[in-house]
Amino acid sequence: MRTPRGKPGATATAKSVEIAARTAHARMTTLPAASPPTPARTLWQAAIDLAVLSATSVTFACVLTAALVSDRLGWTWPSIPYGYARGDVLIHALLASLVVLPALVLVDRLLRLRRPRVWQDLAFVLATLAVIRLGPPDAQVFGTTWTTWEVTTGLFLLQWPIILPLTLAAALLRRLLRGAAGTR
């Protein structure tokens, strides 16, 4: 910066303005430091993730059952007389969610060091897809002759019109719940 000659203090003022502008620019371009994760915060985030994953799994099971039984989207609890009732569906969803939860917590902790929110959301989407595949409904609800590949194809891959919006809604719900709870 060029300053007029002969005015005392003009150079000092110009330099201080330049330093202030650099400092303001540096503040805008750098991210704030991440607060260290506490055990309580990690536990709270895991509880939110567990609830959202379990609810997504149960919702998929009920919507899929309605779609396969009545050829329309709706809500029908999958059941087998004397073998697979509502409680079993809920336990199945909870167990499927518990399988992926440790990996999700680990990825969340590792990625928080650099704070890329998109990667955290992508990890949650993948965890949601794994829970939907592993969770209810049990294939025996729709017959007893299913092979593993038929379950993956017929009850998972071909159900993308149900899975895609449900997965995106789960990711959005997780972000909203974590934002409301004050965690990221």
UniProtKB/TrEMBL annotation:
Chain segments annotated as transmembrane: 50-69, 89-107, 119-136, 156-177
Key words of the record:
Membrane, Transmembrane, Transmembrane helix
Name of the protein: Transmembrane protein
